[in-house]
Amino acid sequence: MDSFNLPDDDDIVDNVEVVYLDEDEEISDEDEMENQDIQEIEDVAVNQEKIEAEVVDLSRLTFKKHITGGQDDMAYVWQVSNGEVYLECTGHNDSVTEVGFNYDNQYVVTGDMSGLIQVWNVKEKKLIWCYGGDDLEWLSWHHLANVLVAGMESGDVFMWQIPQGNCKVLASHGAQTTCGKILPDGKRLAVGYTDGHIKLWDMKAATVIWQQGDLNDITYLAVNQEGTLLASGPKSHVVKVSHGKIVGQYVNVERADVESIVFGNNLDVLITGSLSGKLCLWDISKHSLRHEADLKYPVTTMKWGGNNKLLSK
Asked: What is the rounded CA–CA span in Å between residue 210 and residue 190?
């Protein structure tokens, strides 16, 4: 508790890739970008097979290992090459609803509905840290450091340094937290609550930078690559990170059932997936709908894959 380290500016810069254009290379005009956006949304890779009572760390499906958790109170780390179980994560007494690898794949975390959180060393196949507390709502690794962030039913948000266990608590104002998103700079954390509040926290100081309270029940948060815009579900409001004010809403008001949101890769677009099966591509600057696809099944998860393919489930 005496120290709690987050990446400094040099660490963040080292993780940024800069792409330079050749002198004779021109940037596409607006019409070309629009056609590209539409082609991307039409090329959506759809997995219509339902995976019931299972949570999967999608970010590692294309690497050597991935992890799943389910209603059997177990989590498993799998070898992608042969489908064999590499590590059984035991000790849970409730459904495992949260799993994930840390930023360098050294550790894997498993969390169940009762609030038991366990961290495993993947290479050594052993448990190195655990915590038991309030019912767990969401769980996320820091993308640049061995810091674990968890939102509890009480509304409190815990941050731990792994494996040391140094802890900071972002206290609730009385409402339950439902989701959280660490911003690209690695220093700020956006948290959504059931009473419609979004708070932007300074992670190191454990203080609130701003709060937005004019929204409905927050169920989902997404942030763009630049860390300048924040989107929330289920009504797809977009908030400017610099001051916390609402700058737009991208949803059919009569069908406000957005379950998943992603920002376009290097494009000024927002993509929303809803329980009604609608996948929509919105022009952020023009506040207009550019394309809509009816997938005929609820869209609960979206993630960018290779070659600008959008994966949905």
From this structure: 10
Encoding tokens for residue 18? 């800069």
Specify the pTM: 0.79
Strand bridging mode 310-312 / 45-46: parallel
pLDDT at 11: 52
Task: State how far the Cα of 28 lies from the Cα of 204, in Å rounded to an integer.
Answer: 40
Which of the 8 DSSP states describes residue 307? Answer: G
Q: How far apart are the first and last CA of the chain?
A: 40
CA gap 223, 230 in Å, rounded = 5
Nearest to 111 by CA among 101, 97, 121: 97
Place of tokens 């929330």: 232
Task: Please name which of 202, 244, 204, 240 lies closest in space to residue 224, comparing C-alpha atoms.
Answer: 240
Among the residues of 74-228, which ranges form H helices? Answer: none
Specify the amino acid at residue 203: M
Name the nearest CA neighbour of 188 among 165, 234, 218, 221.
221
Residue 69, pLDDT score: 73
For residue 267, the model assigns a pLDDT of 80
Instruction: Return the SS3 of 146.
Output: coil
C-alpha 153/C-alpha 173 separation (Å) is: 12
